Amino acid sequence: MKRKEKKTYWRGIHSPFFFDLARHLEGGGRYVDVAYDQGLVKAIDQIESLRHSLRRSSDFIEVNDCGAGSRVFKGRFREVKKITRHVLQGKKVAFALLRVLIFWRTQGRSKKILEMGTSLGLTTAYLAASGWDVETWEGCQQTANYARKNWKALGCEDQIKSQVGTFKSLMDDSQGGWDVVFLDGHHDRDATLAYVECLKTKLNPGGAILVDDIDWSKGMKGAWDKLLDDPHWNATMTWRGKGWLFNRVGEIEQHLKLRKSYISLSKFNKMKLFTIVFAAITLLMSTQVQAQGTKNQINTKSNAESSTSTAGASKIFGEMLVFELNGKTVVKVSFDPIMDRMGSDKVALASSQQIAKFNFQSIGQALNVLSSHGWMVEHVWTTMERSGAEQHFIISHEVSKLSPASPWLNKNKNKGTKG
Ligand SMILES: C[S@@+](CC[C@H](N)C(=O)[O-])C[C@H]1O[C@@H](n2cnc3c(N)ncnc32)[C@H](O)[C@@H]1O
């Protein structure tokens, strides 16, 4: 009988080992212990630009399919753009794996990973960016050649050991010694079970296997059920249609089903930005309140909404977010509508509305335009999300006059009217 799997979000996991694994797979940028240096950010950008151009490529590859067949392709000649869209791991999965590998590497000695199923080599390039020793196997010579061309373009060909042959023949000839094996090809029940059985003796102690597409077919579902029943794999975790298998000494037996993050990353980022902008506005307002405290009583009105401050230069704030989408830089400048209620500089307000609507072509264009309208950058920080690097800017504009906006007073007023 199939062993029971427990559904969980990454935050609800007790085992430190699985908690660390799950938070690197599913947690937002602030929850991972990975230092993103410029080299890494650049490597990811390059892989994603290449993915972008392969999705539009007119190339064909004559494929020798050694796997379980395809639901997308009929003949031997396959379009590179279709392979890129339908066969490869997406950016989110590849990036999540990269984070896990970097985290595990920082915890110990140098590590070795085997990818079974190279295809165009984009996921391989992600694995190589982790600093692990990467070996990858591919049954189709033309496909392997194409992948090698891609690694050359990315400058990572020297970090990857690529072998061509059937999984079975390469496995028979191999000594093993891997810490992780990513089984991403030949999604057939019996073949999967046979590879996993053989890998038991070829993995390093404590090593893991990640089996892709465990829900792809009835056969693959059956294979996963069988693997769950094997007492050798005392710790397992399914994640985004894949299954992790571990044989861990000292780990209590557990079988987890990891749910996707319950706060989407875009929502998480918006929340984070909101918190920062809110803090900035609160700080600003407390300064204004202090300034009012020193003012002449005759000028001070009892309604905080209508009192204004002219003491010194005040600032209004906006946000700018920069990220890559399908190889293009996207710049989003936004201003909270609360700014309009602060009675600030009419010219600054008018320009902010135009700026927020405009589609900037580059970060340089946005910064220059903002600067020409008197907007300055206050803070910059980068977060690494599963979709890639995102740069956040807090921008400000000096104004001579500012009315405190007190949304809580309005709310009370509304409640009173209704009630
Ligand atoms: C799903 S793709 C790999 C995708 C790749 N890991 C990525 O995410 O970029 C599977 C690849 O495995 C290869 N393959 C499938 N069965 C194989 C077998 N029995 N022996 C060798 N290669 C095989 C296929 O030719 C195909 O290129």
Could you say how many structural domains there are in total?
A: 2
- Report the β-strand fraction as a percent range: 15-25%
Major beta-sheet overview: 9 strands, mixed
**Count of DSSP-assigned helices:** 13
Would you state the CATH class of the largest domain? Alpha Beta
Head-to-tail CA distance between termini = 60 Å
Spatial strand order of the main sheet: 1-11-9-10-8-7-4-5-6
Element-by-element helix/strand order? EHHEEHHEHEHEHEHEHEEEHEEHHEEH
Cα gyration radius (Å):
27 Å
Number of strands: 15
Average residue-wise pLDDT? 83
Bound molecules: S-adenosylmethionine
User: How much helical structure, as a percent, in the residues?
Assistant: 25-40%
Textual characterization of the structure:
This protein is of the alpha/beta class. The chain has two domains: 6-258, Vaccinia Virus protein VP39 (Rossmann fold, 3-Layer(aba) Sandwich); 265-293 and 304-418, no CATH class. The chain contains 13 helices and 15 strands. The protein has helices at 16-26, 38-54, 80-86, 91-107, 122-129, 141-154, 167-173, 189-199, 218-229, 265-293, 346-357, 363-372, 407-418; strands spanning 6-8, 60-62, 77-79, 112-116, 133-138, 160-164, 178-183, 203-211, 235-239, 242-246, 254-258, 314-325, 328-334, 375-385, 388-399. The strands form three sheets. Strands 1-11-9-10-8-7-4-5-6 form a nine-stranded mixed beta sheet, sandwiched between helices. Helix 5 links the parallel strand 4 and strand 5 (133-138). 33% of the residues are buried. Residues 66-67, 87-89, 115, 117, 119-120, 122-123, 137-140, 143, 166-167, 184-186 line the site of S-adenosylmethionine. The site of S-adenosylmethionine (SAM) has 21 residues, from helix 5 and strand 5.
